[in-house]
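Changelog excerpt

This revision adds worked examples to the README so contributors can see how folded entries look when concatenated. The first example is reproduced verbatim below.
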Amino acid sequence: IAYIVRICIILVTLLIIRFFYFFLVFTLILAKRKDSTKSLLIKTEQLLRIEDHDFAMRPGFGGSAIPVGIDVQVESIDGISEVNMDFTMTLYLRHYWKDERLAFPSSNNLSRTFDGRLVKKIWKPDVFFVHSKRSFIHDTTMENVMLRVYPDGNILYSVRITVTSLCSMDFSRFPLDSQNCSLELESYAYAESDLMLYWKNGNDSLRTDEIALSQFFIEEFHPSHGLALYSSTGWYNRLYINFILRRHIFFFMLQTYFPTMLMVVLSWVSFWIDRRAVPARVSLGITTVLTMSTIITGVSASMPQVSYVKAVDIYLWTSFLFVFLSVIEYAAVNYFTTKEEMKKLEQLKLSGYDASQAMAFDGCFHDQDIELSTFPLSGLNTDPCMSSRNSTTPDLPPVLGTRLRRRRSIRQGVNHIMNNSYKIDSYSKIFFPLAYFLFNIIYWSIYS
C-alpha cells in the first residue's frame, strides 16, 4: 500500500511539473509575440547605431550647410474661401537628405523602410508652412509617416499633410478675376548657413493629381524658390508652391448678371404703360428697385468686406441706377403732365368754356368721350393745338439767305418737352436701352 501511495505521489508531482512547464512555455510565447515589434525596433536601433549618436544635432554640424531636397505631390485642393482669404490643400511632402550616422552595412544594398516610431528618435528637417492657419498629419489608420534609410545614409522622409494657408486675394475684378496663391515652405530653426532647402528635381518636383474645383479651374502649377530675411535670426531658404486660379464666370452669370439685366429691362416696361396709370407704373418701379436691392445684398453677404470697389459692384450699382432713374423718369412725367393739364385748364377757364368739356375740345387729352358738336367750330382750325400756337406767332416772310426751319435753343427744347410731357417716355424708350447697351460694351471689354 505504501508503495502504491509513493507511485501516486510521484505521478501527481510529474503531472504538476508538466503542467507548470507547458504554462511557462505558453506564457513566453505570448510575451514574445507582444514584444516582437519592440525587439525588432531594438534590433533596428542597434543596426543604425541610434544610441551611439546625438541626433539633437544636425548632420555635419560645424561644417557647410546640409542640403535638403524637397518634392511635393498635391493630392487635392479641398476648399478656397473668399471670406477668410485662405485655401486648404492636401499633399505628400517628401524630404531627401544624407545622414552618414544612419549608414549601415548591407550585402544586397537594399533600403529599409520604417514608420513613425523611429522618426521620433533621429534628426529630421524642421520644415514648416509659412502663413499657415491650420495643419495636421493624417493618422488613419496609422500615422501617415514613412522613413526610408539607404545603406549609404541617404534618407527619404515622407508625410501626408493637410494645411490651410493664407492667400492674399485681390477682388477688384471679381467675379472676372484670377487669383495667384502660394504655399510657402521654410526651415524654422536652421538658417541658410545650416540648412539649404531646394527643389530636388527642379520644375518636376511639383506633381499634381487631377484636381477639379467648383468655382475655379487651375491655370498653372509651378514651383519657385527664394530667400526670406528675419532681422533677428538672418536669412532662410524658402520654397514656393505657386498656382493660378481662374474663376468660372457661368455661375455668376446665372446667379447675378442675368437677373440684374432682366430687372433693368423690366423697369423699361413702364415707358410703354400709359402715363396716367399711376398704380401700375409705381408698383413696377418699386418692385424692380427692391429686387435689385436683394441681389446686391446677397452678393455682398458672400464676399469679404474689402475697402475697394469690385467689378460686380460697378455692374450692380450701375444697373441699380438705371432702375432708379426709370422711377425718377415717371415722377418727372407725372409732374409735368399735371402742370400741363393745370395750365390747359386755366387757359380754357379764361376763354369761358366748361373745364371738363374744354379738355375734350382741346384735342391734346382724351380722358372723356364728349360730344364735340355742341361747340362752335367756325373760325377754328382742325388742330386746336396748332391753332393756338399759330395765333401767337405771326407769319413772317422768309428772309433770303436764312433757313426757314430755325433750330431750337436748349432752353426752348426743355420747355418744349415740359409742355409735351408725353415725349419724355418716347425719348426714354430710346435713351435708356442705348445707354445700358453702351455700358455693357464698355464693362465687358474692360473686365473680360
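The second example, added in the same revision:
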Amino acid sequence: MYSAQVSSFISIPFPPSKSKTHKLKYPKILHTKLCNSTPKMSLNQNSNTNLINTITKLLWGPSLPPQLLISTVRSTWSATWQLMMSQLAPSDPTGSYTRPTSQFRLYSNPELKFSPKDLHLYVGLPCPWAHRTLIVRALKGLEDSVPVSIASPGIDGSWEFRVFSDPDKDKLVPGLDKANGCKTLREVYKLRRGGYSGRSTVPMLWDMGKKEVLCNESYDIIEFFNSGLNEISGNPELDLSPPALKVDIRKWNDIIYPNVNNGVYRCGFAQSQEAYNKAAEGLFRTLEMLEDHLAGSRYLCGDVLTLADVCLFTTLIRFDVVYNVLFKCTKKKLIEFTNLHGYLRDIYQIPKVAETCNMGQIMEGYYKILFPLNPGGINPIMPSGCEDEVLSKPHNRDCLSLETKVVQHSVS
C-alpha cells in the first residue's frame, strides 16, 4: 500500500480592505456587492464553498472562467500533483513507478530467534500485499496462534487503529491495536529497539516479546506461515508450496509480480504517458496469457492451489472494483475474462477466503485516501460483478481437476 502524507490547502480570495497598502482595486459595484454579501455568511459553518460560489458568479456569471485562470489553476494543480506523487509513488526518470524495497526481511538474518507464541500480525484490509498474509493465515488455521490487528488508512494516508463500525459482520473489519495499544502503525514501528523513521507499511510481523519488527515483506511472511509454523497450525497438512512445484511457483511469481501485482500500480502511479502505456501493455498481455493458460488448468500449477495463486488472487479481487477505474486499467474488466473470473470465484469460494475480502473496506481505502488520484474523494458504486452474490456463483472449474484430464503443470 502506501504511507505518504498528503494534505491540501484552499486559498480563499477575500476582497481587499480600504487600507492604503492594497494597490489592487475591484470595480466599485463588485466591491460593494462583495462587502454586502460577505457578512451574511458564517465562517463557523464552513462557508468557504458558498463564498467561492458567490465570488465566481459575480465575476463571470454562468460562463466558464477566463482562459488565463483555467491555465493558471491547471499548471498549479499539475505541479502540486507531481509533488504529491513523488512522495506517494517514487518514480524513475521515465516516470515509471518504482516500488520501495521492504526493510525487514525474515530470512536475511540467520541468527534471528523468536518464540511462535510472541507473533502478532499487523495488516490493512485495502492492501493486496497484506491480504496475502490473511489468506494463508486462514487456510493454515493460524487464526488463534497468530493474532492480528487490523489498521485502517487515515486521512493522511498513514495506518491508524480505531473502532470501525462495518455492516458486513461476516468479514474482517478494522479495529484497535491488540498487541501494543498504539493509535497508529507508525507508533508501533517506533517501539522497536533503536526506533524507526522509515515507511510504516503493512503487512508487518511483530515480536511481542522482544518488541521488534520481524518482517514487513509479504512473501516472506506467507512462506513462513505456510511451512514455518506447522507445530501450532490448525491445518499443518496443507502445503501451498510443495517441493515438486517450487520451480513452477517461482516462474509464475516472476511473471505475475512485475506485470500484474505491481503492474496495476505501475499503471495507476505512472507519471508520464510513456510509463503508463508500457505498464498497461504488459498488464493486459499477461492477463491474456493467464486467460489462455487457465482454460486448461484449474490453478496456475495444475490441480493444486499454491502461493502463486494466492498472490494473483489478491490483485484480481481488486481489479474491477479499484484498478480498472482508479488506476486506469481500462482496456478490459476482469469479468470479461471468462477463465480468469471463474478462477477468481473458485478461490473466493474456498472456505475462509471470502471472510478476508471486505470489498467495502477495499474501496474506502483507495477512493477515499489516494487523494492525488481521486481529489474529490467520491466512492463509486461497487460493480455488480464484485458483489458476494456474483462471486459465489458456480464456477465449474472443478471439472479441470479430474484425474483423467491432462493439465498443465509448467510455465512455458
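Reviewer comment on example two: Residues 330 and 355 are 28 Å apart (CA to CA). The chain has 14 helices and five strands.
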